[in-house]
Amino acid sequence: MGVRRCLAVLALVLVPPSPANADDLKLAPGMAIASDGAQVHYEVGTLHVPENRARPGGRQIGVGVLRIRARAPTGAPPIFLLVGGPGVTLLDTLEDQGPAAKRRLRMWLDDSESADLVIVEQRGYTLRGDMLELKNPAMPLDRPARVEDDVALTMAQARAAAGEHPGIDLAGYTIAECADDVDAARRLLGYDRISLLGASFGSQWSFAVMRRHPETVARALISAVEPLDNGYDMPSQVFAALQRIAFEAERDPALAPFIPKGGLIAAVRAVHDRFAKGPVTVQVPGAGAVTLGLGDFQLALREQAVDAAVWPAFVIDLYNGRYQGWARQVIEQRKANTVSLIGPLIDTATGMSAAREAQLRTDPALDMLGSWNFAAYLASADAWPTDDLGDAFRLPVLNPTPVLFVQGDWDTNTPVENLTGLLPYFPNARAIIVHRGQHTGALALLRDRPELAAAARRFLKDGTLDDLPAEAALAPVRFALPEKE
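^ thats the sequence. predicted structure below, dont judge the formating
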């Protein structure tokens, strides 16, 4: 799960759903053009569901639903694609004429080769219903980032959300309700059983569907694994992924002349110790000055690793005191922006077990990465309107559903240990560990191995798990080089 950003001012953009009975769904046809010029025929509409199923008679909300019918029906269960986030919409793809949207349409067309593809959007962040958003105020540039400030601002945000919005039942925005939305769409579209395709929060959402409606799930293809009890990442497991990236980077011939004495992890520790002694103020031509401290370094250490190809050069530049590029990024990050409200609502309700929280709070890598990933949400959890879903919901249980897990070992958002800890609970599962794989969907992880991507699609079609390797490797990374002296 990504780092929690401090938010103080709350704004909601509401699109009232059309009057309808609970669990109502109507689709209308449309067509878009994919990256290769192929026509993508789809149906799109609004699923009307109760805002809070625990409170009958409350408000109804809209949730976007898209379906692409199978080009060559085979009787395979439909594929329900559950997007990450929380706080991501996919229906904007239909109006976007850019190359990324067209490539996504091409992928959807491939996904629907032999089975219907269905996308159910996230309640509270859907173009066919409510877009609940938070305005993140600009953060000061003259002092470093601190976890304590993040906690204080998130507490203020939670109090605002709970008390300033009559008529909106924010308690209904949980992953359990999202899972029930998927089941409502399944039922109204006339499907007995479905397959799930999810990554990151989409994987956690998939686990919620399997927990609440296990009899309806035929199989699942899951990557960037985020179990229900693992919404907040263990710092030492994230740091282990950084160590794996560093190991390979240090052996790259082009990068080798730039590697500091002792290696990249030693360089990370040296920069950490430097900022632990006090912040520095960096002048950025054309952008002003910004003060950077240990908290900023902890945040950046993980944020930069989202792209493993640039992370080693980032560390080397900081080790050598070259802060300009980083400072420019921080200035942009501290500007006011807008994010989804459903992120904190869903994540604090999903919560975590007491045992995992104790492990988090005593993790040996906290000094290196800080508690940015969890401190603000744990401190404010009781102030958010959503209720904790409890251990009976989030702790893993034995599940016979056939699952193909595809997980990258360089994933710094959902570490590979998430998968290894969960795998014993899925006796009918197979797992492919992808070396150099980062935080993305299963089919994207297998981009360099088309035969395995085809096998993953075959699994969604007929459940075949035979002859799959335990591991695979992507092509070697071309690492970026540091700035010149």
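DSSP finds 17 helices and 15 strands in the chain.
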